[in-house]
Amino acid sequence: MDIEIAGGVAAILVIKGAGMAFAAGILLFALLYAKDFFKGKNDKTFTDHGEEEESKAS
Fold it and tell me: What is the pLDDT of residues 21-48, one digit of tens each?
């Protein structure tokens, strides 16, 4: 997925310039990575990993 973003940014950088490429990179990142953020799945990014280790020890 990172290569898709890099390729899109590189193409826009060549055609439009640095400002447009930066904006496109932010937009592509938001579309590709942030779409899963609002689904409500717990990917344990913001949870305490100590709780997980305690449950494995039990």
Answer: 999 999 988 888 777 667 767 767 666 6
For the entire predicted model, the pTM comes to 0.56
Nearest to 28 by CA among 9, 54, 48: 9
Q: Which of 25, 23, 27 shows the shortest CA–CA distance to 8? A: 25
- CB neighbours of residue 20 within 10 Å: 13
The pair of structure tokens assigned to 4 is 């898709």
Residue 29 neighbours by CB under 8 Å, 6+ apart: 5
Residues 2 and 25: beta-carbon distance below 8 Å: no
